[in-house]
Amino acid sequence: MIARPSPRTLCAVAAGALSVAGFGTLPLAPLSMFALAILLWLWLHAPSPRTAAWYGFCWGAGAFLVGVSWVYVSLHDFGMMPAPLAAIATALFCLYLALFPAAAGYLQARLALPPLPRLMLLMPACWVLGEWLRGWLFTGFPWLAFGYTQADTPLAGYAPLAGVYGLSFLAVAVTGGAVAAVTLRGVARHAAIAVAALLVAAGYGLKQIEWTRPQGEPLSVALLQGNVPQELKFVPGRYEQTLDTYARLARSAQAKLIVLPETAIPRFLDQVDRGYLDMLREHALAQDGDILLPAPLRDADGRYYNAVVSLGRAPMQSYAKRHLVPFGEFIPPGFGWVLEVLRIPLSDFTPGSPAQRPLEVAGERVAVNVCYEDAFGEEIIRQLPEATLLVNVSNVAWFGDSLAPEQHLRIARLRALETGRYMLRATNTGITAIIDAQGRVSARLPAFTEGVLTGTAQAYAGATPYVRFGNGPVLVFVILVLAAAALRRYRA
Q: pLDDT tens, 237-288?
């Protein structure tokens, strides 16, 4: 199959690559669903579980080699890994990710329900199980979960109930219904159309429900985007210029809550001139508010943390990043040799405590998360419903002018939808944005520009069903579907 790829193999790869269209800013979910429909059709007509696994692998390879191509930029352009080694590492990583849709394809073929329940129940269940495992194994990589493509569709109404994995299940089910409508006949065809239409209509109705409620007056906010080139961020002699950039931007910000991007200060906080920190604190006090300043912290035992500290009216508080990025922020055991080919400063962070609570700043309780952490919805809700506002600080400069910034923005939008909270994103090079409690981008700065995004954010109270129960209900439903299918096969 590798030496002489069939037209169906090539079609699977191309469809996977096309699926990436729905993960950016434009509302291109129909393209992604069309690409997925091709895979579901191939699975339905695969002659064996092995062939179905192969189609899933090819589709996944196309999707991840395109959608996660920015890993190469991080490794080579900024990690200084030699180009051939970076290309091999990126390809191997993407092919590893492709194993999950391959496993989903194999499992749905082995259990082999009749076409309609297979397309609208079994395939979605296998798909979601694969996504969940991908987001959990080896610390997890939930990027490009299919539910993210649904942020602008009626199915987004399910996000406060079932989270992104619930959206993935429903999106695959609706896509399976479309495939059934084309391939099946008679009662099965009409049933597929009716169920798919009902799911979409219910999603539209759910979008009209307000699961959380506004609390207090709107808060003035300012999000700083320094646009400091990653290749210069840790260069000797550049430090003072970086501090000057953020001092100038901060002083120009007239807001009660001012947020700087991840590691805006590229030096341990105890090494920063006290006069600089006092200047930021005095400016926050003049606004009767607070500044959230990301900077690495270290303790007496030599451990250091990717952290955010508050300066201003409230007592000084800190948040330490809990979910670290393998090879970027920590080196897994047995991989110390990677440091010989990767030149990433501060690559041995210690994770923060999972029990950290929201920071009480600017009169609100703010759930801070750092960069990649907002890809893990069930970790974000640990600080809810106590938190009234979400803040993400990121430095996506590691991935250059790639697909990553737009994909990351879409992830943040789903976190706002799931929690019924505003999400404020302060990034180094973009995309800095204010996202409302319905997951809509109300304001944003252009990428790769220096600026201050000012606006208002409304605090919210209350808890969505997803905040209360997390991914549990979806996973239980998936397991029940798979168990019922396995029992039916066993009895047959």
A: 788 899 999 999 999 999 999 999 998 998 899 999 999 999 999 999 999 9
Q: Would you state the torsion angle of the CA atoms of residues 416, 418, 419, 423, taken in this order, to the nearest 10 degrees?
A: -10
Taking Cα atoms as reference points, which of 41, 42, 37 lies closest to residue 1?
42
Beta strands in 114-158 (DSSP E): none
The SS3 of residue 221 is strand
Alpha helix (H) ranges present in 401-471? Answer: 404-419, 465-469
Element (H, E) at 294: strand 290-298
Percent of the chain with pLDDT over 70: 94
CATH 3.30.70.20 fits 213-463, yes or no: no
Element of type H or E holding 171: helix 159-183
Q: Which candidate, 33, 42, 48, 45, places its Cα nearest to that of 13?
A: 42
Alpha helices in 377-469 (DSSP H): 377-380, 404-419, 465-469
Enumerate the active-site residues. Answer: 262, 321, 371
Q: Is the dihedral angle over the CA atoms 397, 402, 404, 410 positive or is it negative? A: positive
β-pairing, 290-298 vs 257-259, is parallel
Q: Considering all CA atoms of the chain, what is the largest pairwise distance in Å, rounded to the nearest integer?
A: 77
Query: Is the distance from CB of 413 to CB of 423 less than 8 angstroms?
Result: yes
Q: Does residue 435 contact residue 423 with C-beta atoms inside 8 Å? A: yes
192, two tokens: 């597929």
Domain limits, CATH 3.60.110.10, in the chain = 213-463
Q: What is the mean pLDDT of the chain?
A: 93
Binned at pLDDT 50, 70 and 90, residue 334 comes out as: low
Name the residue among 156, 96, 238 with its Cα closest to residue 417.
156
